[in-house]
């Protein structure tokens, strides 16, 4: 009880700003009451279509070239033969096929590129994408293929990052090997230069390597050291090995980074840089409650690291809440539930009769 009372005490007032931000955020936070923790994001994505009185076939035609074209007819899944990234299609189809017997007829476009497709200046279309900018893109979010399979592929995971269910187990085990007290008091980041918004952290690490260990790795687009900010590429580090560090950084890449959810399972403190890019579950996680929000300029990073080093109990509590959220609400069954509610709502809003097309292939497990 005394500890509860004292934990936000700040004798010299130096860190009162951060202490207040944490205290206020924690007191305002209301944990999910239903099993469908991500309902608000789905509602936000469909709002536009509800206001327009539903999704019409002409809207659908606007999006026909923006992703993979699927039809569900009489509990059978069909797809236009070509799929630009077969393993991403498989990752998505895994979830749809699991639910197929419960799904009504519908027709949808699933974008398997990293970036969203429907912007303010483009024709409106009901396109499913795994990530988007919170303001500015109208795509309907779906859970990334990589919850099951489809990458991205990197050295330690040559067939692509996937199987969230297995990662949940291995990362939880690794977190047990690296309890909070044993973790290295250092910021950590490994990843490729999919966005130059990551540069300030890499530069900070070069100046103050004891504070932050942040290095660029190669990706498929790598041609020379210029692509790793004029330094040789660093070796890739498994997600499991991230658990050794107390402070883990997340940045957007081309779109939202796939690493965000994994970082929490280490039960380390996640520093989330920028707030524009989201996946379906991001908005249910709250700054200062589950992670530390960081501005894109990263000017405050030095202060934040010092603050959390001096207020270790607050860092640990945020890390605990972040891990607990992901373990409780972002299980494989929650991902399936999101797909189910998403497709049911979409089908209800769709206003045209879906017809068979002989050029489509049947998709089976
Ligand atoms: N990754 C990793 N270890 C590394 C580099 C990358 O596990 O050393 C993972 C990373 O967590 C992410 C994926 O590989 O999920 C792709 O990382 P990258 O930085 O290339 O792209 P991002 O998706 O973050 O834009």
TrEMBL record:
Annotated InterPro entries: CAP10, O-Glucosyltr/Glycosyltrsf_90
- Sorted alphabetically, which Pfam families does this protein's record hold? Glyco_transf_90
Glycosyl transferase CAP10 domain: residues covered = 102-353
| Alphabetical keyword list | Transferase
Its family remark reads: Belongs to the glycosyltransferase 90 family.
Can you name this protein?
Protein O-glucosyltransferase 1 isoform X3
According to its UniProt entry, this protein's organism is Hydra vulgaris
Q: What is the lineage of its organism?
A: Eukaryota, Metazoa, Cnidaria, Hydrozoa, Hydroidolina
